[in-house]
Amino acid sequence: MLAVAGLGKSFGGLKAVSDVSFTVMPGEIFGIIGPNGAGKTTLFNCLSGLLPLSAGTVHLDGRRIDGLRPHEICRLGLARTFQIVRPFHGMSVLENVKVAAFARHPASAAAEQHARLALGRVGMAHLADLDAERLSVAEMRRLEIARAIATEPRLLLLDEMLAGLTATEAAALCEQIRRINAEGVTIMMVEHSVPIISELCGNAIVLNFGEMLASGATRAVLDDAQVQEAYLGSAAS
Ligand SMILES: Nc1ncnc2c1ncn2[C@@H]1O[C@H](COP(=O)(O)OP(=O)(O)OP(=O)(O)O)[C@@H](O)[C@H]1O
Q1: Where are the domains of the chain?
Q2: What do you get for the CA distance between the two ends of the chain, in Å?
Q3: 79 touches 153 (CB < 8 A)
Q4: Residue 106 DSSP one-character state
Q5: The pTM is what?
């Protein structure tokens, strides 16, 4: 579904992402792990068209998408969430999702109907009329997912959706992510929590200082000696 080859991104002299290649298969939940500053968000920014690549190519279902603008990539079926959720000021939860639904449904009534469906899919239908800025952290994350799925993606990139949540909130959101995946949306997720990546992701890559340290089946990736040393050893201590 997604084929990334030799992707690189530099900021001046800093190589934030360097020669990263991997393939995401339709229907999977694919993990991206790595320490702070490893280049995970930069990778997402490159895939979703927010940043131009310095090197490499990205294909979505066989079609080259690097060089396209974010709204064009979104229309082709790739949506992403942001680590820091910023709802539109002064708008209700429903209006926030409706803005995203306009990407596929230019008529207001249709956009609203699809926004309500997206809110239902993340268990937030009852909060539709609330001022979005009054949501809790966990609800903000669900709003962010609703905004992304309102664009009707086939591939959804989730950037650290579970950070800062209580164990109960994280478990509920994991369940939600599984459900969205079971409904036919392929998922790529950046996550720091190794247990969560192990539980949700069949395959994963590990980034370290912008370079790909390991890729493949999550279990094998987490057992990799270099990964243990660079990341998990320090994370476990
Ligand atoms: N717009 C930018 N301009 C300059 N440097 C940047 C920019 N965005 C990211 N960087 C740098 O690129 C490197 C990778 O950052 P990135 O945010 O992608 O890492 P990350 O793995 O997502 O980290 P975290 O887990 O903390 O979110 C860091 O050294 C960061 O300072």
Answers
A1: 1-77+155-237, 83-152
A2: 37
A3: yes
A4: -
A5: 0.92
Q: Which atom of ligand 1 is found nearest the CA of 39?
A: 18
Mutate which of 10, 11, 43, 81 for ligand 1 pocket (most atoms within 8 A of beta carbon)? 11
What are φ and ψ of residue 232, in 5° steps? -70, -35
CATH class of 1-77+155-237: alpha beta
Is pLDDT of 106 > 80? yes
Of the candidates 174, 156, 155, which has an alpha carbon nearest to the alpha carbon of residue 165?
A: 174
Distance, CA of 113 to CA of 82 (rounded, Å): 24
Coil, strand or helix at 41: helix
Return the number of other C-beta atoms located less than 10 Å from residue 64's C-beta. 11
Bridge partners of residue 3, in order along the sequence:
23, 59
Q: Which atom of ligand 1 is nearest to the CA of 42?
A: 18
Reported ipTM exceeds the 0.90 cut: yes
- Among residues 107, 116, 188, the alpha carbon closest in space to that of 153 is found at 188
Ligand 1 centroid, distance to 18 Cα (angstroms): 13
CA atoms within 13 A on the CB side of 185: 26
* pLDDT category of residue 112 using cuts at 50, 70 and 90: very high
